[in-house]
Amino acid sequence: MPQRSEVVLRATELSRTFRVGSRFSPSKVSAVDGVSIELSAGQSLGIVGETGCGKSTLARMLVGLERPDGGTLTYRGEDVTAGRRADRRLLRQGVQMIFQDPYTSLDPRMTVLDLVAEPLAAARSMNAARRRDRVAELLDLVGLSTEMMSRYPHQFSGGQRQRIGIARALALDPQVLICDEPVSALDVSVQAQVINLLRDLQHRLGVALLFISHDLSVVRHVADRVAVMYLGRLAEVGPVALIFDEPRHPYTQALLSASPSVGSEARGRLGRRLVLTGEPPSPVNPPPGCRFHERCAMAEDRCAAEVPRLRTVDGDVVGADVSAGRLSACHFAEQVVVRS
Ligand code: SF4
Fold it and tell me: Which of 19, 21, 88, 238 has the fewest CB atoms within 10 Å of its CB?
C-alpha cells in the first residue's frame, strides 16, 4: 500500500489523435492534446467538461485501453507509456475502471462468484477455494451479502450491479480506480449510496479515484481536486473549492454558470449568467491559439495566435507541474473577476 502522499499515476503531456474519414479524404481528430495530471494515493480527482472534450479518451489511456501517441504515463514511478506486455500487466493490476453502465459491463451468463473472481483467475494467484473467500470479502466490502454469490446479474437492481462492478474492480487490490460516469445510469435515489461507497473505499483502502462526471454537484461532493477539459486540453485545474468558488478560466465560469445543479450558486458569485455562444468547434479542425477563443467573451487578438499555457493566476508559468495549487490556461486569468 503506497503512502498517502505518493503519486501513483502521473500523465505528462499525454496526447491521442485518431484518424477519421475515408482513404481518399483522411483527417485527424485531436481527442487529447498535451494533458498533464497526477493522482496521489487516497486522493480523488474529478474531470469535467462538455461531451467530446476528451475525458473518456483520457480515462482509457490511463487504464491502458488506449495507447497514447504523445507524452508519458507512469504508474508508481514505472514508465508504462509504451504498452508493453509488462506495462499492461502492471496497469491491469494497479489501475481498474468502473464503467458507466452496470447493465452492459457484466456478462449476464456469469454468476457473481465467477464475475468477481474472473480477474483473480486470470492473474493465477489463488486456487478456487481462496478465490471464493476473496470474493466473499469483496462482496462484504461493497455492502452485498455473500449469499448472493450464486446469482446472476439480472437478479439485481442497478445499484447492486454497480456494487458488483466495484467489487470486481477491487479484486486485484488496485491503487487507482478510474470511474467513468459511474452513477449516471442509476436512479437518483441510489446515486448517493454508490458515491458514498466510493468515498468510503477511498478512505478505507487508500485507493485514488479519478472521477469523470457531467454532474458538477457529484464532482464537488466526491473530488479533492478537479480538472476542467475543453476540446482535448486542460482549461483549469486545482482544489475543488477554489475551482467551484473562484473559477478563473472563462470556460470554467460558463460551465458552472450553465449547470442545473451548481449554476445558481455560481451565477451568484459571478454576478451574472454566462452563456456559451456557438457550437463547440470540431476537434477535426480545432481553432488555433486558445481553443476556446471563438466562444470566449474576453477573447483578444492574442488569443487566436498564442496557445495559453497552464499557469498560476499570479502569472507564474509552471508548465506540467499540475500538483501546484490552482492553474489556469488563460492569458488573462488574473483579470477574471469573481466575488469573494
Ligand atoms: Fe478567453 Fe483568451 Fe483566456 Fe482563451 S486565453 S479563455 S480566449 S481570454
Answer: 19
